[in-house]
Each structure stands twice: as structure tokens, then as C-alpha cells.
Amino acid sequence: MNNFYDFLIVGGGSAGYAAGRTLHEGGGSVAVVDGADELSGLCILRGCMPSKTLIYSAETLHLAREGSVFGFDSVDLKADMFAMQKRKREIIEKFADYRKGQLEDDRFTLFRSKAKFLDENNVELDDGTILRADKYVISTGSGISMPDVPGLNQVSFKTSDDVLDLSEIPKEVVVLGGGIVACELAQFLSRVGSRVTLLQRSDYILKEFSNQASICVKKKFMEEGIKVLTGVTVKNLKQIDQETICVNYNFNGEDHSVDTKFLFHAMGRTPATDGLNLDKVGVKTAKSGHIQTNAFQQTSIPNIYAAGDCAGPHEIVHVAIRQGETAAMHALGQNPEPLCYDHLLGVVFTDPQVASVGLLPEELDKRGIEYLSADYPFDDHGKSILMEAKHGYVAVHADKATGIVLGAECVGKDAGELIHTLSIAVSLKATVHQLAKADWYHPTLSEIWTYPLEDLAELIPTTT
Ligand SMILES: Cc1cc2nc3c(=O)[nH]c(=O)nc-3n(C[C@H](O)[C@H](O)[C@H](O)COP(=O)(O)OP(=O)(O)OC[C@H]3O[C@@H](n4cnc5c(N)ncnc54)[C@H](O)[C@@H]3O)c2cc1C
After folding, report:
1. What is the enclosing helix (H) or strand (E) of 255?
2. pLDDT for residue 464 is more than 70
3. Measured from the CB, is residue 271 less than 6 Å from ligand 1?
4. Strand spans (E) along 272-387
5. Rounded Cα distance, 253 and 103, in Å
6. Is the pLDDT of residue 2 over 80?
7. Residue 116 Cα: closest atom of ligand 1
8. Is 297 touching ligand 1 by the criterion CB < 6 Å?
9. What does the pLDDT look like over 391-434, one tens digit per residue?
10. If you measure from the C-alpha of residue 321 to the centroid of ligand 1, how many angstroms do you get, rounded to a whole number?
11. Using a 6 Å cutoff on CB, does residue 44 contact ligand 1?
12. By C-alpha distance, which of 225, 183, 173, 175 is closest to 204?
């Protein structure tokens, strides 16, 4: 067997597949090495797709329970976890089969093994096979992190994998963490019937977003009966018996404790680089563990690229794909655009959803950019009022001199869909004046953007 390839990809998830596809299209032989028992990557198997399938089921259940508001009798509806999981499995199996087919087709030579670097041109597989390539893309993803919380490594905690595979609904859950996965799955658990307590170290949940967004989501969580405590220090975790864990924490200067049979560790993920021998080859990593790259995803060793969660800085799928494609194009000697996150799009699938694009006030202030902002609440907008979707707001931030849209935020029903209009505006450097002139159908949720856009268009003189 010829064990030499032009390109070798370590890890066949979203980033690795995107790199492989692009490299194949560019010409040259491509090998993919993936060590998972099940191929397809995090997004399809244990990330975006299963979580959003279950969250949508829980959202539908929640809406149905609110039936009397909309004028029909709502009986005592309950989540059927068996049926929800069956639906999820059927959906995920189809996505996974499709991705497996893509990886196994004749565009690539696929090796089902872990790989570790011997030097900058050779990797070794578990069975001792040595593969040689001119250029590499490392796209090994991420794993659950083990932050420095006393006792964490001695207790039987659960992770997002366990929540996504629940066969029965836990009576109560303590969630450690207040990030995206923590919040999305805390609300899912609460809506299917668990009593949920969420403990977050920072003063705000969803701290990647604005404080206003965080406050909005927290308010809705509390209304739905989720106990949200922020500014919490977890002092230690103790396994009391086979099933029960005691969480000792400090909140508002006082010590408290809570016992739980379901401790959900949602304090984040860490780049999966253990065992790759990166030190030996000289591939540098940052303090966060992410593989350091330039804007073309090239590491400190020029023929080795890195993309996706293992490279960061944003662990989301469209970024992983863009990074994989950029790495591949650069490796092919094409001239890709360098990665830049000034247009970054982020979505949280809580209810209300949170979505943002581009630069938000904190970053604009940091960079000394002069801008104007305008916002508008959903509780004063026609379509959201008739849908009883009154939580949240939209906000637009535009350059003070030109009116170019620099960033936007939306918290509310279907914010993850609504933000795309503004994402296109930010990418195309459209101005508030151009957007205000577009047609906005009535009555739609999207129409809410016209309020801040018109306010800004009035304040900022037209330059064209
Ligand atoms: C619960 C949850 C929900 C999420 N929801 C969203 C969402 O809604 N939207 C969004 O954009 N993102 C979401 N994410 C994040 C998203 O799933 C990841 O950013 C994305 O899947 C990362 O892709 P990747 O290619 O970097 O890694 P992966 O898809 O994890 O691929 C890495 C591959 O590398 C292989 N591998 C690892 N080490 C080795 C080795 N040494 N040798 C060979 N193979 C190896 C693994 O087997 C794996 O197949 C979510 C994540 C979680 C956990």
C-alpha cells in the first residue's frame, strides 16, 4: 500500500470534512484519519443537531401547554422521553449516514484510527502504520473540560452527552455553568419536567452576549421556574452515596449546599490535542489549549494547519467549516481571504433565543469606533404581540459617520432566524439607509428591525 498523500487530515468532523472536500476539489490525494467509534463528528452526533431536535420538541411542548392563552383547552401534557429520543435517533441517524457516506466515498482514503505525529511529515496510527504527507490539517475537535473545581474529578457528574441521551427525566438537576450549552439544556430539562438549579460563577449567564440579553433570558428562566444563581463560587463537590452528590457553594457571601442525583457539568470544553505529540513536532498551543494559527489556519509549523474546535477561538460549526476551507485553500496555494471574526454570528437556542452579529458596544468602545445604537422591544411590536412572544428586543449599531451597520443583537422568538437579515447587512457593509429603504412585509417578526433602522437613518446623514 502506498502510504504517501499530498494532504492528510486528522479528524473527520465538520472542520476536517470541509478541509477534505476543498482539498479534493483542488486536486491531489487526500487521506482522512478519524479515531471515533462512530464517524460524523460532534455537531451531528452529540452537538448541534441532537440538541436542537430535543430543544424543539420541548419548545413545542411548552407552547402547547400555553394553549389556553391562544384560545384552546390544553390538557395535562407530559414529555414522553422515549418518543422524543426515538424521533431524535431517527433524524440523527440519517444525518450521520449521509456524512459517513461522504467520508467513505472514493474522494478520500479513510483510516479508522487515532493518529499521532512522529515528525512534521509522518503520523503513526494505532496499529503502527506510518502515513506520510506533504501537508496536514489537524481538526480533532474538543472534549469536556475539567476546570479546577474541588472534587469534580471524584464525583459522578453528567455531561451534555448524557443529557442528550436521557432515557428518563431526572426529578431534579443542578447545572454547573451558565454558557450556551448550559442554558440551552437547562431550559430543555426544565421544560420536560426536571426541577433545575443553575449555578454560574460570573455575574451574568451567557456572558459572551450583552448584559441586557443575559438579563432577558434569566428573567424568562425564572418565570419558568428555573432557579438561576449568578456570582456563585462552587467550594467543593462530594459524592455522598452511589447516586447523590453534595454541591457546596457560596452565594452572596453565604455558604449553601444542595444535594443532587443529577449534576450536569456544563462548564465548557477543551481542545482535543492530547496524544497528538504536538510538542514533539513544535506545533504551538495557546494557554487555552487551542492550537495557535495565523489567519489562514497555519500553525507554527508551516505545512501543518489546524481548524475547528481544536484551534478556536469560537467553537461553532460555521466557523469550523470556514476554517477548514481556508486551511485547505491556503495549503493548495490558492489565495483565500484571511479569517476575521468582525462579522461573527452567534445564536443561543434558549427561549427567548439570543443572537448577535458583528461588533457589539463593548468591542466598539474598546476599539474607539464612533457609533450610534437604536433598539426596539418585542412587547411593542404587532406580530410578536399577536404571537404572545413579547420577551426581548432588537438592537442595531451603526457607524456614526457613514451609517454602515457594524453589529446587531436580537433577543426574542426566532432570533436565530431574524439575525440573518442583519448578518447579510454586516457582511455586505450595508448602511442603515439602504436597509430602511428595503421592503419589510407586514405583519412579520422581521419587520421589527425597521424601528431601530429608521431611527438611525434619521440620526445619521446620508453620505451617498
Ligand atoms: C451540546 C452541544 C451543542 C452544540 N450546538 C451547537 C450549535 O447549535 N451550533 C453550532 O454552531 N455549534 C454547536 N456546538 C459546537 C459544534 O458542535 C462544534 O463547534 C463543532 O462540531 C466542532 O467541529 P470540529 O470539526 O472542530 O470537531 P468534531 O466534529 O468533534 O470532529 C473531531 C473529530 O476528530 C476525531 N479525532 C480526535 N482526536 C483524534 C486523533 N488523535 N486521531 C484521529 N482522529 C481524532 C474525532 O473522532 C472526531 O470525529 C455544540 C456543541 C455541543 C457540545
Report:
1. strand 254-260
2. no
3. no
4. 304-306, 345-348, 353-358, 371-377
5. 53
6. no
7. 41
8. no
9. 999 999 999 999 999 999 999 999 999 999 999 999 999 999 99
10. 11
11. no
12. 183
Q: Is the CB of 20 under 6 A from ligand 1?
A: no
Please give the residue that has the higher pLDDT: either 75 or 223: 223
Q: Which cell is 318 given?
A: 460555521
Give per-residue pLDDT as tens, 306-345. Answer: 999 999 999 999 999 999 999 999 999 999 999 999 999 9
pLDDT at 74: 78
Closest CA to 89 of 166, 20, 203, 160: 166
pLDDT of residue 455: 98
CB 9 within 8 A of CB 19: yes
Q: Which amino acid is at 5?
A: Y
Give the whole-angstrom CA distance, residue 186 versus residue 201: 16
Give me ligand 1 centre to Cα 400, in Å. 39
User: Ligand 1: which of 21, 22, 48 to mutate, judged by most atoms within 8 Å of the beta carbon?
Assistant: 48
Whole-number Å distance, alpha carbon 318 to ligand 1 midpoint, is: 12
For residue 397, give the H/E element and its range.
strand 393-399
Contact criterion met (CB below 8 Å) for 395 and 407: no
Cis omega (within 30 of 0) for bond into 361:
no
Q: How confident is the model at residue 447 (pLDDT cuts 50, 70, 90)?
A: very high
What DSSP character marks residue 435? Answer: H
- Ligand 1 center to residue 439 CA distance, Å? 39
